[in-house]
Amino acid sequence: MSWSVAARGKAPEVKKDVAGQFERAPKCAEPEEGIRLAAAKLIDLSLEAQDPERDVNVQAYGSQSVTTTTVRNSLNITISPQG
Known about the structure:
Elements: E1 2-10, H1 11-24, H2 32-48, E2 55-66, E3 71-81
Antiparallel strand pairs: 1-2, 2-3
Helix pairs in contact: 1-2
C-alpha cells in the first residue's frame, strides 16, 4: 500500500490541511501504519516550529511492499520554507 500528503501555503494553514489529509486517508497495514502516524507527528511538530507568516511546502509519501520473506518500507518527507 502507499500514502501521500502535500500542501503549500502559510504554515498554520498547511498544518491543518496536512493533518486533515492524514485523518481522511485509509489506514495502512502494519508496520506501515505506525510509520505513517509517526510521519504525521513529525510533520506536525515541524510545522509548529515554522514562521507562521511564511509559506511552506510539504510533500510526504510512503509505501510498503511485502514478499513471503520480507517487508520493505519507503518514506520521504520534504518540508521547505519558501521565500
